[in-house]
Design a protein that fits this description.
Number of helices: 8
Number of strands: 3
Shape: elongated
Strand content: under 5%
Order of helices and strands: HHHHHHEEHHE
Low-confidence stretches: none
Helix content: 40-55%
Mean pLDDT: 83
Number of domains: 2
């Protein structure tokens, strides 16, 4: 026996699931799938666009009576590059003309004279970023380090001193 969902019932189920969050959403999805009977998970996936893993988690919650705790606070923020797509390129353009390599060529790090606060200020002035949208100076400092720039001052290479060789005394 195959179950057929009408368009109005599909829309009702999809809208109801969309309005619910977390445990309530999983419980609603699980109860709906259980009422659909055998093959309900696959039908809900195909017709309603629901994730079968979420449905299974909801069914386990229903049968065991134990509610899974969602740890939304551990998800974190999106990276600054995800909503400001040209940020890294703009930082590179600003810092490249102000950077130099290690004078002793012992490392591949690039050193820049610009501080993170100065980079942020120039991004606002030259590239038209707004103060509210742009990340903090600390975040820009982290991005500079990720790009391979170091904001410390470069010590100039000093010539080595010529040491006098110890001379043998004439008393030997």
């Amino acid at each position: 026996m195959s179950i057929v969902l009408t368009d109005s019932l599909k829309n009702l189920l999809i809208e109801t699931a969309f309005q619910l969050k977390g445990t309530a959403k999983r419980k609603f999805m699980a109860q709906t799938v259980v009422k659909l009977g055998f093959g309900g998970q696959r039908l809900a996936q195909r017709e309603l666009g629901w994730n079968r893993d979420t449905i299974r988690k909801g069914i386990k919650e229903l049968t065991s009576g134990i509610t899974c705790v969602d740890n939304y606070s551990a998800k974190g923020r999106y990276k600054a590059e995800e909503h400001l797509t040209t940020l890294l390129e703009d930082i590179k353009n600003l810092v490249d003309c102000q950077s130099q390599t290690d004078p002793s060529f012992k490392s591949r790090r690039l050193y820049t004279r610009l501080s993170a606060a100065e980079v942020r200020k120039q991004l606002i002035e030259k590239y038209g970023y707004s103060d509210e949208v742009l990340p903090t100076s600390e975040t820009i400092r982290v991005k500079l380090n990720d790009l391979g720039y170091n904001t410390r001052r470069v010590q100039k290479v000093l010539p080595q001193k010529k040491f006098l060789k110890p001379q043998q005394s004439l008393m030997n």
